[in-house]
Amino acid sequence: MNVREMDELYTKFLAVTGLPAERIFDLFIAGYKLVPPAPPICLEVAAEGFDIEREYTRMKNEMQVVKAENRRWGQVCEAQNKRIEQLEKERDEAKREAAQYKAFFDGVANKPDCNTCVKKGCEHRPKPGEVTRFNCPLYCGKEAAE
Description:
Blueprint: H1 3-17, H2 21-30, H3 41-47, H4 52-110, H5 142-145
């Protein structure tokens, strides 16, 4: 081995290991082996038989599954929105009915009953213990007399 080859070898050892040649020789004497640097991950994967077409197909299929699930959840949300709208309509209808019943009750509660009727001998008048009839069509109270 000539001087030029030794210099090139020294330069390569220094570049690869970052150690001076003396330290490398000490390692060889101690029984250590120099291991070549690990190849990049892409090369390792390719060396293990990595098939990029298969991976592309797998990822494409996975993306289609995710898209299908998104569409399904969109349909579920749409159905839930329809159900919510239906329940809101039912709630609004119940509110209107409650308002009508409240208006009817307020009308009944504020009108006189048979106990305040002028016609004491009325045939529609309930007997003692029976329910008092509100808003008798035959009622003629003080307001009607005036």
